[in-house]
Amino acid sequence: MKNNTSDPRAMAMREIYTNTSDLSGTTRALIQKEPAIRAEYELARRIEDGITRLATRPVPGRLRSMVFGALYQPAYRVWHILAATLLLGVAPLFLAHSFRNLPGLGSGWIASMFALYGVLILVLMMPLAFQIFRKNTDRLEHFKDSFDDYIEHGLRALRFR
């Protein structure tokens, strides 16, 4: 990409879209002289005033896939899930050990510890469930399509897939 710092038209366009209310003299002269820059200035003023919105354009497929991949990529890896599952299996042993070694715990503490263990199970199983759902999304989409075809066209739709 070229650096257009010496081009007065590029400088005027940058100034129009960044600082519409306080333009320099050269930019004002270009607005008066050139109709294309005048049209851009009027568009920038309307956008700034909230009258006109930018036209929506379709997102390029590559950009869409990059953004989708960045947003839906899990923040955890397989070893995170394995460690969470191991912790999930070992947690009752720790609870039993702590109950044996701390005889002063009342029944309220025991109930609250098992309730916290239930919360721990929920929190540790959520990434695993998310991974399973994310992995099988394509199969679910295919299932929905084939089910819709079956409802619309009967068994003929399923035979030719």
**Amount of beta strand:** under 5%
Mean pLDDT equals: 75
Indicate the structural class.
mainly alpha
Q: Largest sheet at a glance?
A: none
Low-pLDDT segments: none
Would you count the extended β strands for me?
0
The tally of structural domains comes to 2
Count of DSSP H/I helices: 8
Describe what is shown at a glance:
The chain is mainly α and 161 residues long. It has helices spanning 8-18, 25-33, 35-49, 61-72, 78-101, 107-135, 137-153, 155-159.
Helices and strands in order, then pairings?
Elements: H1 8-18, H2 25-33, H3 35-49, H4 61-72, H5 78-101, H6 107-135, H7 137-153, H8 155-159
Helix pairs in contact: 1-2, 1-3, 2-3, 5-6
Describe this structure in words.
This protein is 76% helix and 0% strand. By secondary structure, the protein is mostly helical. It folds into 2 domains: 8-49, no CATH class; 74-159, no CATH class. The protein is elongated, with a radius of gyration of 31 Å.
Primary descriptors:
0% strand; 76% helix; 161 residues; mainly alpha; 8 helices; elongated
